[in-house]
Amino acid sequence: MRKYGVLLMNIGTPDAPTKKAIKTYLREFLLDPDVIDLPAPIRHLLVRGIILNTRPKKIAPRYQSIWMEEGSPLRVYTQKMCDSLELKLGDVVCEVGMRYGNPSIRSGLENLRRGGVDTVLLAPLFPHHAQATTQSSLKHAYKQLEIIKWSPEILELPPFPSESEFINPLVNSLKSQIKNDVHLLFSYHGLPISHIKRGDLSGEHCQKVNDCCNKSVEGNMMCYARHCMMTTISVVEKLGLKEDEWSISFQSRLGPTKWLEPSTIKKVEDLVENGKKNIFIISPSFLVDGLETLEELNIEIRDHFLKSGGEKLVVGRCLNDDPLWIEGLSNLISKALNLPGFVN
Fold first, then answer.
1. 261-320 pLDDT, tens digit each
2. Contact at 8 Å (CB) between 79 and 85?
3. Between residues 209 and 125, the one the model is more confident about
4. Which domains does the chain have, with CATH numbers?
5. Each residue of 228-246: pLDDT tens digit?
6. Rg of the Cα trace of the chain?
C-alpha cells in the first residue's frame, strides 16, 4: 500500500525581525537567478553591494510591526494550514518547506522520507504560476532530492487560478464585505515584465496583442498575468460586480526595471481622484498573511490612501487555515494524487 506525502512550499521568511536575520534571508532570496534574472556578476554586485547594505535596516521595523508571539506570520499561518490539511487528509503526511529560510524544502523532504512516504506531491502554495515562485520552488525541490539521494514517485500540484476549490473560499470571504459603496481592489504581487514575457510559450502574444491578459490562448496558459486575470474575473462574476466596482493592481515592486502596472500605490491615488473613497483590498496571490498583506497593504498603502483623501480602506485577510479553503485545498491535492476513493 502506497504512503502519500505533500510538501507545501511557500516563499519563506526571515527567522527573526532583525537586520542580521533579514540580511541572511534576502541574500538567499535575491541571489536566486529566478528572482533577479540579471547576469550573475551584475546580480551579485546589485544584491551584495547595494541591497544587502541598505534594505535590511529599512525593512526590519516593518517586520517588527507584524511579528507574532509564535514567530513570523507567514511561517505560523503556513504551518496552521499544513496541520489543518493533514487532519483533513487523514493518512497523508504533510510538511512545510520554504523556498528561502526555514523550515527548508530539504528538511521537509527529509521528514517525508523518515515518515515512510513513497509518493510525494510537490505543492507550491501559489495559485498563479510564475518563474520567481512556482518554477523556482519546484526546481529547488528536485535539486534537493538529488542531494539527499531520494527517489520517490513525484507529482506536482498545478496552478489553480480559477479552480472552484480556490475561488469559492475566496468569494465566501468577501460576501459580507462587498456592499454598494465599496470598491474592490485586487492587489497582486508584481513581477518584472521580462518574467511575464518569458511565460509566453508562443513568443507572439504577451505585450504584443491588445488586452493580452484578457485572452486565453495556448501561449499564455502558464502566464502569471493571465492567471491573475483569471482569478479576478472568476471572483467578479461570482460576486456579480459591475465594471466600475472593481480594479486590479500590482504591489511589491523592487528595482528600476519595468514591472506589471498599475502599481497599487498609484492605483489607490487614482481611485480617490475618481471618487472611490471606500476601498476593500484583497491580494489573492498570497494564500497566507505575511509582510506584503499585514504591513505593505494594511499599513503602508492604507497610510498613502488616507493621505490622498481616501476615507475607509479595509484589507481582507488571506485564506490562511479557513475551513472552506482547507476543504478546497484537500480536494485539489486529492485530485493531484489521485487518492483512492476520491471522486473527481
1. 999 999 999 999 999 999 999 999 999 999 999 999 999 999 999 999 999 999 999 999
2. no
3. 125
4. 4-160+323-337 (3.40.50.1400), 164-315 (3.40.50.1400)
5. 999 999 999 999 999 999 9
6. 20
Q: Counting Cβ atoms within 10 Å, is residue 108 exposed (0-12), middle (13-18) or buried (19+)? A: buried
- As a whole number of angstroms, the distance between CA 293 and CA 187 comes to 10
What pLDDT, in 10s, does the model give residues 133-188?
Answer: 999 999 999 999 999 999 999 999 999 999 999 999 999 999 988 887 899 999 99
CB 300 within 8 Å of CB 264:
no
- Proportion of the chain in helix, strand, coil states, percent, rounded to 5: 50, 15, 35
Length of the chain: 344
164-174 vs 224-239: helix crossing angle, rounded to 10 = 50
CB 15 within 8 A of CB 101: yes
> At how many degrees (to 10) do helices 323-337 and 164-174 cross?
170
Measured over the CA atoms of residue 245, residue 247, residue 252 and residue 255, the dihedral's sign is negative
Torsion of CA 245, 251, 255, 261, to 10 degrees: -20
Name the amino acid, one letter, at 204.
E
Report which secondary-structure segment, H or E, holds 210.
none
Long-range contacts of 331-335 (CB under 8 A, 24+ apart): 331/165, 332/157, 332/160, 332/163, 332/165, 332/166, 333/6, 333/85, 333/89, 333/92, 333/121, 333/123, 333/157, 334/89
- Map residue 62 onto helix, strand or coil: helix
82 is written with which cell numbers? Answer: 499544513
Question: Which residue in this structure is represented by grid cell 534571508?
Answer: 25
The tally of CA atoms less than 13 A away on the side-chain side of residue 259 is: 17
